[in-house]
Amino acid sequence: MTDLSDTAAQYVTALKHLCPQIAQAQDLLLQFRTLLQDHDSPDFDQWLERSEQSAISEVVGFSQGLRRDYAAVKAACSSPWSQGQTEGQVNRLKTIKRQMYGRAGFALLRCRVLHQLAASPCHQPTCT
Q1: What distances in angstroms separate CA 1 from CA 51, 71, 96, 127, one per listed residue?
Q2: Residue spans per domain, the chain
Q3: What is the DSSP letter of 1?
Q4: 66: Cβ contacts below 8 Å, ≥ 6 apart
Q5: Distance CA 101, CA 111 (A)
Q6: Given 3-state DSSP classes, what are the helix, strand and coil percentages for the chain, each rounded to the nearest 5?
Q7: What predicted TM-score, i.e. pTM, was given to this entire model?
Q8: What are 22-49's pLDDT values in tens digits?
């Protein structure tokens, strides 16, 4: 929470005093973020138990969703590898495709994607 302004930090502190559930939710979710950042897989099971026993329905629902995909989340908590680069490229490709929807065929889509990857003009005669 160090990135909050003084006013925002005071507001959060006041909210946590008025509603202890907000403080509990913040603590649990900050712990989860730390688990992912530090790749601390052994603590994940303990965190999951604590979050499922909390009185906050949103946190319980979140943790139950994590439990359904336990193997993937456990791997994310222990592996230094990320799908971020792949997901970013897929998102970029889908954005280009959406921009061109109904306007051109595969040849132009191919040129736009390859043009951005190679950073050089596409010289195929089918690109119009």
Answers
A1: 20, 30, 36, 50
A2: 6-78, 84-118
A3: -
A4: 48, 73
A5: 15
A6: 75, 0, 25
A7: 0.58
A8: 999 999 999 998 888 887 777 888 999 9
